[in-house]
Design a protein that fits this description.
The chain is mostly helical. The protein is about 55% helix and about 10% strand.
């Protein structure tokens, strides 16, 4: 697990990178929020409860990309997705507001993706080690499952496949990440997220 010194280094990196990126992201962010509001006829900012560090709930911010689904049910997502929303999700631009999650300290640039209640908060034993990490915008499990939506749509029972195959694998990947953390690896994951 990360030492206190490592956690401090990670936090300094998170804040510094966010401050550097924010001036370039603010205009696209405001533009996309406005477009989402017009296209979807709802508030362009989507707020949802997710499980964060130490299993505590927090508010995650995204640009709204769906007409009515809850951003959790893959079938409902596809049934309520517009072409604009599909583009937002495929480019990951819907996650731009998470810069503010990083700045206020509820998220990190790199870490386990924040899950809805019913997953990370129910971890037991050694698996709970990953709850010591702040959830991340990207990370090794996020990169491995960057096409998770398409993978789940191929399954007869997407929820069962997620719960029995994808979720346990993500837990194992995130445990390894927490045990082998380095700032260099975080920078590598961010670079791969941008350029892959």
């Amino acid at each position: 697990m990360l030492t206190s010194k490592q956690k401090n280094s990670k936090r300094i990196f998170d804040v510094t990178l966010s401050i550097l990126v924010l001036p370039f992201a603010i205009i696209p962010l405001l533009l996309l929020l406005s477009i989402s509001t017009v296209v979807l006829r709802r508030n362009g900012l989507f707020v949802q409860k997710r499980i964060g560090q130490y299993g505590k709930p927090f508010k995650l911010y995204k640009i709204r990309s769906l007409k009515g689904a809850n951003h959790a049910d893959i079938v409902a997502i596809k049934n309520s997705e517009t072409a604009y929303g599909a583009w937002l999700r495929s480019t990951k631009l819907d996650e731009l507001p998470q810069l503010f999650n990083v700045l206020i300290g509820t998220m990190s640039w790199v870490g386990p993706r924040p899950d809805i209640p019913g997953y990370a908060d129910l971890l037991e034993g050694e698996d709970r080690k990953i709850l010591e990490l702040k959830p991340g915008i990207t990370g090794p499990a996020t990169l491995k499952y960057k096409n998770e939506d398409q993978l789940l749509l191929l399954q007869k029972n997407p929820l069962q496949y997620n719960d029995t195959v994808i979720w346990p694998d993500k837990v194992a990947i995130n445990k390894a990440y927490s045990e082998q953390w380095s700032l260099q690896k975080d920078i590598s994951y961010i670079s791969k997220s941008i350029f892959s």
